[in-house]
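Revision sheet: structure tokens.
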Amino acid sequence: MKSGPYDVLFEPVRIGPVTAPNRFYQVPHCTGQGHLRPRADASGRAMKAAGGWGVVCNQETEIHPTSDLTPFPESRLWDEKDIPALRLMTDAVHAHGSLAGIELAHNGNHAANLLSRAPSFAPSDMSIDVLYPKQARAMDKTDIKNLRRWHRDAARRAKEAGFDIIYVYAGHRMTLPQHFLLPDMNDRSDEYGGSLENRVRLIRELIEETKEEVGDRCAVAFRFAVEELMGADGMQGQEEGREVVEMLAELPDLWDVNVSDWSNDSATTRFMPNDGFQIEHINFVKQLTTKPVVGTGRITSPDMMVSLINKGVLDLIGAARPSIADPFLPTKIREGRIEEIRECIGCNICVSSDNHGVPIRCTQNPTMGEEWRRNWHPEQIEPKGEAEAALVVGAGPAGLECAMQLARRGYAVTIADARDAAGGRAKREAELHGLSAWKRVSDNRLYDLKQRGNVNLYLESELSAKDVLDLEIPNVFIATGARWRSDGVGRSSRTAPKRASLMPVFTPDDIMDQTVLPGGPIVIYDDDQIYIGGVIAQHLAAAGHAVHFVTPAAIVSPWTEMTLEQGRIQRALIAAGVTIHTGRRLVEITTDRCRLDCTYGGAGNDVLCGAVVLITERTRKTALYDELKREGTLSHLELIGDAASPGLIADAVFDGHRAARGFEGDTEAQDATYFRRELVSLHDTIGG
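Predicted:
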């Protein structure tokens, strides 16, 4: 067989008593499915294995009711009754020749135990780290002994469930082993506190006892955050992080190393634009151990992967988000289809799903989370029906995805867009400060469409209803998107603020159209409260404008807490010199100022300005659809994406995908997929 530049990525790697078939390693990550939706979770993991990931891990798996993460549906291994649900995953992963890993977790003061109502544990007395009126109690020696027993029992059950790799987990500031390690959480004076050696004691015991329990057949991995990115206030990789690795160097069968907390480990491209951003923090680990090392950091480039292996930085290429964006990334590398990889854009829509406690989704991969419920496959789609051709009006995220999937099905596809470049809002938003990676959404789909002989793309082609009908294509999908409102009606007020005609007023569309703004301070009124307001504020500040950011919310861009960005966004705006006015509702725009009321009933204030940018809601662009619907002569007419329901780019991509798959299908069967669900068994489990 002819050698290639990426052959090293497909070499097997020995991990304790098991062998990974290649170097592609899907590290543990949450899916919002877990113990509530085990079939869906297993199907999603199986897709990764089918796509060539040599190791596929699940997510943090609660080992005991005192680590109850309700309402978040992670995995559970409280007792033997949880084994069958987890075996669904191991069987599915093994069917494709991959290894299955499980991340055992006791979350300590990160677990509020809202379902179990058990006490929360920590190394020392302290508040739990979720917003709930409860404190964790300091663990006594009996509690520690019980924890070790619970972990050992869970490891034994994991082995019985068929897992090949079993984790001891000390990362993300979320688990007791790490809590004992960190001085700011551990002020004990016994043998589990004080010196680093004492603070490492629990980790050592858990690794040793897990190996005793399962080491004859299962590898034992240690997931460890070597660096907290907090400077002297936290663990630093080249100081205590290094010492921990030196102390335990040969004890685990695998080192899975990252940075803490979760917002650092899963940093967005908006703030960590470089792929492989964690490497500088973890690159010392391999020098200190002979055991295999896996690391992450949104590594999407095959050349970077090879370089990291050849330089001895990593033995296995870890991924969470890149494996979500493209479960078949390893297969595409092996087959030389590098250009077809759907690169992760680092938007953290996957993360937001877990924070909302709902099944995972992805901007780049609309099939993620739908493998079981809808039987969707990221690389396969049903062939076309009886129709021959389709027209897609609008080449934004929904239109491009719809057109690409229709073309894959075998239809002759015509795409028309009024603008001089395809990509719609994905391209336009990518030109704003910090969002350049978002262009990957349109680039990936345009590349695919340009390879196909059954696709014609026409730009600068705004179509009227007559134009559409004259084309004589009977199947039409309207993806004309939405425009931002310019009247100020939004989330907090259904009444437009009073407005003087002499004050220049703009919307995000004007900013993305590169409209020149006048001099003087600019007020950005963000009643959208999602992400675009903070982006535009930073964008205009970077362009040299004096910016006042006004929002009815208590913080800037509150929804971005779901994507782990909110703190970074607010700090970035402060650093950029943006003046922030929270808890303020816009009531009037005069000739030289904005008049603000206090959201909570306190005194209002005025802000002098030379222009206002209103970021509130979007108006759907449906004129073409409405006229064609009135005509009533088309065989199929469908409104998709933001034109149907404005949302995230991920929602638009999903809707385009759904429409293409559903075309010429059984409507009743398609509707049923909205309701396919995993039902709770009514079997009485009390007493066994």
